[in-house]
User: What shape does this take?
Amino acid sequence: MASQPILRTKTPSYHSPPANDPVSGATIHTLKCLDTPIHLGYHLIPHISLTLLQNLPSSTYVLVTDSNLESRCSVTTTFKNQLDLAASTLAIPNKPRFLSKVIPPGEGSKSRKGKADIEDWLLANRVTRDAVVLAVGGGVIGDLVGFVAATFMRGLKFVQVPTTLLAMVDSAVGGKTAIDHPLGKNLIGSFHQPSYVFIDAAWLITLPPREWSNGMAEVVKTAAIWDEADFAKLESNAPAIRSAVLGPFPADAPADQGRTLESRTEAQTLLLDVIRGSVGVKAHIVTIDEKETGLRNLVNFGHTVGHAIEAVLTPHMLHGECISIGMILEAEIARSMNGLSQVAVGRLSRCLKEYDLPVSLADPRVTKLAKSSQVTVDRLLDIMKVDKKNSGDEKKVVLLSAIGHTLEDKATAVPDDVIRRVLSLGARVRPVRDFPNKPSVTLSTPGSKSISNRALVLAALADNTCRLRNLLHSDDTQVMMSGLNDLKAAKFEWEDGGETIVVHGNGGSISRPENDKEIYLQNAGTAARFMTTVVTLVKDEGEDAAPVVVTGNKRMKERPIGALVDALRSNGTSIEYKESQGCLPLAVKGTAAGFKGGRIELAATISSQYVSSILLCAPYAAEEVVLELVGGQVISQLYIDMTIAMMASFGIRVERLLDPSTGRPSNTYRIPRGRYRSPDVYDIESDASSATYPLAIAAITGTECTIPNIGSGSLQGDARFAKEVLEPMGCQVIQTATSTTVRGPPIGNLRQIGLVDMEPMTDAFLTASVLLAVAPHPPASGSTSTARPSTRITGIANQRVKECNRIRAMMDELAKFGVETKEHEDGLEIYGINFSELKSGASVHCYDDHRVAMAFSVLATLAPGEGCVLEEKRCVEKTWPNWWDDLERKMGIQVSGIDPPVSASLCISPSHAAKASASASASAGGFGATLTKLSQSLTPVKYPANATIFCIGMRASGKTYLGGFGAAALGRPFIDADVVFNQQVGLNDFVAQHGWPAFRLKEMEILKDLMANYSEGHLISLGGGVVETPECRKMLKEYAQNKGPVVYVVRDVEEIVHFLETSDRPAYGEPVLDVFKRRDPWFQECSSVELVSYSGNKKVAEAFDGKAADPTSKDQEAPKAKTAVPEASMSIRKAFGLEAEVARFFKFIAGEDTNQVGDIVHPRDNGGGRKTYFLSLTFPDIISKLSLVEKMSSGADALEFRVDLLNPTGEPVSKVQIPDLAYVKVQLAALRQRTTLPIVYTVRTESQGGKFPDGAEEEYFELIKLGLRHGCEYIDLEIGWPEERLESVRDHKGHAKIIASWHDWSGGLDWESDDTMQKYEKASKYGDIAKIIGKANSIEDNYSLERFRKQVGLISANATFDVKPLLAINMGEVGQFSRIVNPVFSPITHEAMPVKAAPGQISFKQVQTALALIGQQPALKFALFGTPTAHSLSPLLHNTGFKVLGLPHHYDRLETAEVDESLRAFVRSPDFGGASVTIPHKLAIMSLLDSVTPEAKIIGAVNTIIPRRGPAGQATVSLEGDNTDWIAIDEVSRRNLSPVQISSPDFSALVIGAGGSARAAIFAMYRLGAKTIMLYNRTLKNAEALQKDLPIEWNVRVVESLDDLPLLPSAVISNVPAEGTSLDRASGAGVVLPPAILSNPAGGVAIDMSYKPHHTPLMELVKQANLNASVSNLDRHNLRQGRLWTGIPGLTILLEQGCHQFSRWTGREAPRNEIEEACWSSYRGL
Ligand SMILES: NC(=O)c1ccc[n+]([C@@H]2O[C@H](COP(=O)([O-])OP(=O)(O)OC[C@H]3O[C@@H](n4cnc5c(N)ncnc54)[C@H](O)[C@@H]3O)[C@@H](O)[C@H]2O)c1
Ligand SMILES: [Zn+2]
Assistant: This one.
C-alpha cells in the first residue's frame, strides 16, 4: 500500500543561515515558496518599508488591516512613518502615495460585501494597476486582500504581512486566496502568489493566547507529519516557546528586542525556529505540489475529522482547536488501521495539551457548548462526505505511521466503519461464536499504572536522571507528569520514539506553579493522592504567597481524600477544602520547612494510596517520619509493600516496626530522611490488572493466552489472579516468575469457587465476576449441596469508592444479562448460569470506569445475538487507551462503533453522558423542574397524549364544574373523587364515626387506586384536602413531573370564603382563610398547570357552586342597549368566554389542540406564505379595556400580553417594576375569556426595552413559569439570560412555543455581522421562533436587514443549526419599512392603544395599506353571483371588512340568470379573489370549478368559491367550491350550547323544513354531535324523500307533528320562510310552532334561517319560553345568560357565514365588530 517514502525535507533555502540586511540592519532568515521570498525576523516594519521601496517600487502603496490591529498597534501610522522614513533614507525623489483602509475584524469581512467595499474604495481613490497592496493582519485579511489583489484590474502585486501565528505558518504561505459564501467557507477564490511574505514574530506579543494556540495547532500538525526532530522540540520546549509570546517580559527589555541576533533572547530564537521549521515544510510542499494533487494533502492531517467538527462548532471553536481534536481522532484511526503506536498517540495528545489545545470532544471547552450535542457520528460522517480529498464515496484521511511520518505521501482511503468505530461513544463487541478460530494470544499489557505512577514520583524526586521503560501512557500518568512539571519537580524527555521517558529529577526541590496555575488532575485518583503530599513539599513563603491548588474534574471532586488531608493537617500543613469537605479541590500550604514530618497518624482503612503518598515523600520531610496507620484493618497492604519495595530500588529503605507485644510486624513505619537515587533504567512491569482481561478471554473462550512479563515474582497483587481465581475455575495455568499462560476449558465449562478473598487483588474482582456469571458448575472440591452454584467474593468493600461504586455497578449491569447477584458488606456473591441463558441485547453502562468496560468486553464474547454494547468506550483510556484496537487486532475479537441508544447520541465521551443523565435527573426534581428557586410549583411537560388529567384545588374553587366542562370538551369520562368516596363509604358520616386520620387514609387509597386504574383517558377531580397527606402530595408531584397534567384550579379566595360561609357544606372547623394559606403552597408544588376560575361577574361565580341566581337580574356583562348588535351575536362569545377558555385550556394541556398559528413562514419558504401578526397590548389594566381588545385585534393572529407593563393602579408603568403575580394571573384569565386568539406572553426587561428590572433573574423566571403554567401558547424568552436557564425553559415548556428574543436598542446592531448570525443561531436553539430586533438609523439599515433575511433563507437548507422562523425588524420610524415586510409575527399596534409597545410600531391596517402601495398586496376583485341580489348585505359585509383591515380589494354584485360566460371570465381573471354564490346558481356553478369540498358535495350546494393559488410565483389557480352555511349553523350552535349538552348522549336536534338549506342544517347538526336529528316538514313526503337521501349514520328521524316530539331537542332550526310560520293555530299558517318544541328543561338554541322580519314567530317563542321558565328550571348550565333558550335570527347566520367566507379568501379573521355594526344598521334601515 505504502509507496516509496519521500525524503522529508524542507524548502531548499531552509538551510541557509540568517543574514543581516545591509540597509535595515535586521537579522533575516529567508525562505522561498515557489518564487515568493519569505523573510522572517523580529520588528521588521523598517525592513519591510525599505525592501518595498527598493524592490517593489510603485507610485502607490495600499495597506489594508483590521480595526483590532489598528487600535492595538497603530498599524497605519507606523507603516506610513516608516515608509516616509525609508523614502528619505533612500532619497526617493517622488514620495509615493500611501493609502490605508481599516476594516472590521472577523470572518464576516471575508465576504462578497467585504471585497466590494475594498474595491469601491480603491476605485474611489483612483488606485491603478501599478499599486502594491499590503495585507497586514490574520488569515482573514490575507485571504480577502489577496483575492481583491488577484482580480482588481486583472491583478495587483501584493505583500503578505501576517500578524497571527496561523497566518504566518499557514494562510500567508502558498498563495491561496478566498472569500466565504453563506453556503460555505472559502468557496470563491483563486491562487495568487504574493510578491513577498514578511513574517515578523513580534506581532505575536499582542495576539490573544487563544489565537496563539490556534496557530500552534498547525505548527504541531506540520511537525507531526514531517519532522520528528521538530516535534521533539515542540514537545520539550513548550514553556520557553510560550514565554517568547505570552511573556512575562522584563520591564527593561529593549523595544525592538530580537531585531538582530545579538538582542534576540533564547526563547525568541526558539520561537522563530519553530515558525521557520513549519513554514519551511509548507513552502517545500507547496513548491513541489502547487495545485494540490497529492502531497499537499498531507498538510490536511487532522483536517478531515477536524473540519467536520469545525463545521458544527464554528464559530465557538476555532479552526486550530477543532483540528487539534481532529488530529487525535485521526491518529486513533491510524492506530486502528495501521497500528500507529499508542505512544505516538499519547505524545501527540500531550504535545497539543502543552499548547492549551483541546484533544478530545469531551474537553469542557466543547461540552459546555450547547451545540456539542450535535456532534454525532452520523453528522460528522455526513459532513466528511463532501471533503475535497475524497474520491467518490471513500473518505480520505492522512494516516501517521509514526511521529514525523505518514503511511503514504498522500491521504489514505479509510472505510466508514473504521471512522465510526473511532468516533463513536460506544463499542459493540461481537461474540466469539463469529470467530470459531480465535487464535492463541501472546501479548504484553500496558505498563502497570501503580508502578508507573510510583516510578514517576520517585524518579522526579531523585537527584539524577532515570530512563523509564514501558511506562503506561495514559491520562493518569499524563496528568501526573504535567503536575510534576508544573511544580518543576522534574524535567521529562522522550527517547526511542517516545517508548522511553527520560526523567531528570530535581532532587526534591518543588516550586509553586507559575501564575498560580492549578494542578489539574482530571479524574486520576492515584495522581490526586500522590500529588497532595508532593505539594506539601513546597515551602511556605508566608502570608502573601497563594496556596497551591490541587483540583480535578467533577467526578474527582466527589472522591474522598479526607483521611490523607487530616493526617497532613495534623502535621502542620495548612489545607483548605475549596468546595465540598473531604474532597478536591484543595488549597495547600506547607510549612516554612515544607513537609514537617515527625510522627504522623493516618487512617488507612479507605485507601492504601494515602499511605503510599506519605511514604513516597517522607524522605524529604524536615524530620524523620514515623508513620502509624490507625483506625482498624489496613486496606490493600500489597500496594503499601509495593511502594516500599520500589522506594528500596531508588535507595531508601523503609523500616516496618515490630509490635513489641507480639513481636510481629506492626502498622507503624519508620522512613529515614534521605534522597532518592534512580537506577539508570527502570523497567516497568506490565499491569497485572489489565492482564486479567486477556487471560479471562482465554478462560471464557476456551483458548490460550500468554502474558510474557508478569509472573509469580510480581509486586502486583493482581498477578495472583491466574493462580487463585482462574485455576480453581477450571483453567490450566502455567506461571513462571516472569510469565503467565492460561488455557481455558471448553466453552461453558467454567466452575464456581464458592468463596474467594480478593483483598490482595481487588481490581480484578470485576473480571472474576463476569467469569463467575457464566460458570454453571459447582466448585470442584465444594460440597455436593443442591444450592445454585455460586461464589462469594470477599475483601472488596473498598471497591465501592473507586471510579464508581463497582459492586453496585456489577450487580446492575450483570442483571441486564439475567445474572443474579447478592450484595454483602465486604463483597459480592454471584450465581452462575449457563452462557446460553444470558439475556441478549444488553447495553452496558460503564460509569466512566475502565474496569467495568473491559470486564464486560470479556463477557460480551459469550453474549447471545450480536454481542453487547459498551456504552462509553473512551473510559478505557485511563489504563489501556488502545484496548479496543488490541481486542480486535491482537485478541481477535471484532469490535464496531455504535452510538448507544440510551445516551444522547454523542460521539463525545462519558462525561457527556454523565451530563445528560445529570440534567435528566435535574428535570425529575431539581432546579429544572421548578425553573426557579422562588416557588416549588412545576411546569408542564409534553405528557403522553392520553394521560389522565387530575384537578386539585380548594373546595368551591370550581374543580368539579370546570373539570366537567374540560372532560366534555375532551370527550373524556369525568370522575369526581368525592363521589367515589361517597359511594364507597359515605362522606359525612365517615368523619364523624372514624375521625379525620382514617378519612385521609381512605382518601389516599382512593387516589392510589385512581392513579393505578384510570391513568389514561380520564379527567379526575380530587377532594380539596388531598394535599394534607404527604404521601398524596408525593404521588401528585411525581405524576405532574412526567406522567400527566395536574391542574390547580384557582379561584379568588374571598369568593371561596363568601361562598362557603353561606353554603350548607360541612364546615372545616377552622377559618377558610387559614386552610387556604396552608394548602396553597401544596397545591402549587403538586401541580404543573393552573386554571383560574375567573368570573367577572358574581352570577357566574355562583354558578360554579350550583347555587341558583335570580334570572331576571341584569347581566353585568350584557351588551349595552346603545349598540346596534343584538345579544345573540358577538356578545355571546364574551358571555360564554369561560367555557370557551376552559375547553381551550384542557385541549392545550392535553396537546389535542394547541391553538397555535399553523402556517408561520419558515426561512426555507423564501419569502412566500401568509404573513402573521400579533397585537401588543400595552394597557396597565387590561380588564377595564376588554371591550376594546376585540376591536383592536382585527387582523392579528395573536395577542401579546406584556406582563411588565401591567399595573394595578391602572396608570402606565413609569419605572421598572416586578409585577404582582396574582394581578398577572387575573388579568390573563380575564383576557382569555374575551378572545380565542393565542397569547404571546412577554416579560420585557429594561435593557431590552421593557419595564422589568434587568438583574431580577429569579423573578423573571418565576413569571415565565407563570406563563407556562397558565397554558400560554407562546412565551417570549430573552436570550440574554444564562444558558442553563434558557435550557430549562426549553425543556419544560410543555406545548408552549418559545419566541426567543433579542433586542438591540443601541442602533449598533449590524445585521450582516457574524454576531447577528450568532444571535439568530442562539435564538433558533432555544426558540420555536427567533426574534431579533435592531434599530434603524437610515433606510439602508432596512436593506441590510433584508439581506440578512435573505441570507438566512439561503443557509436554511444546509445550516449547521436548526433554523427557526425569523421575526426580524428594525425599531424607530425609519425602521417601519421592516415592519411592513417582515413575514413572521410582526408586532402591531392599534389607534386605540394608549402607547405603542415600541417606537415605529404601526397598525395592521397601515401595514396592509403599505404592502398594497409597494406592490406586495395585489388588489383582488370579489363578487356575489345569483339573482336577485339587489338587497344583499354581502357587498357591505365584505367591503367593510376590507376597509377595516386596509386591504385593497373590492366586492361587487354580478347578477346573471344563468351560469354563463361572464361568470366564467370573472372567475378566471388573474385578479379574481373569490365569490359568493346564491340562488339560483348554487348547483350549476360547480361546472366552473376545479374541485368541490366533500362538505359542499354532501350538502349539494356551493355558496363560496375560493381560488387556491400555487406556490409563490406560480400563476396556476385552482377554483374550489365550498359551503359555509353549515359552518355558520354549527359555529353559532356550538357557542350557545354548553359542552356538557353537546356531549350528552341525549343531545337531539329538530330541523324544520325540507328545502335546500335544510340539508345544510342537518349536516351541521350531525357534525355538531346530535345523536338524533328530527326532521319536520309540512309535506311529509318531501321530508321522507330527504331522509332517504341522507346517510343512515346521521340518524335522521322524520316526525309527523311538532306537538308530540319523541325527544326534547336542544337545538331547533327553522328553514321555512318566517311568513309561513306562526305561533297561533288559528292563523292558518303553514307551520305552527307549539311551545312544546322548546320544552327541554336544560334549554338550548333556536335558529331561524329566515331573516325577514327580524322578530320572527320562532324568536317570539324563545322569548316566551324564557319568561315562563321557573327559577328551578334554571340549572347551572344555562343560567349564565339568565335565560334558558337563545334565539338566533337569520341575519346572525348570514353574517357568520359571510365572515367565514371572508377569512377563507383573505386568510384573515373578519373584523366582526365593524362588520356587524355596519350590517345591522343597514338591515334596520331597510
Ligand atoms: N489561504 C490559506 O491557505 C488559509 C489557510 C488557513 C486558514 N485560512 C483562513 O484564515 C482565516 C483565519 O485566520 P486567523 O486565524 O488569522 O483569523 P483572523 O484574521 O480573524 O485573526 C484572528 C483575530 O486576531 C486578531 N489579530 C490578528 N493579529 C493580531 C495581533 N497581532 N494582535 C492582536 N490581535 C490580532 C484579528 O483582529 C482577529 O480578531 C480563515 O478565514 C481561514 O479560512 C486560509
Ligand atoms: Zn488548517
Summary: The mean pLDDT is 87.
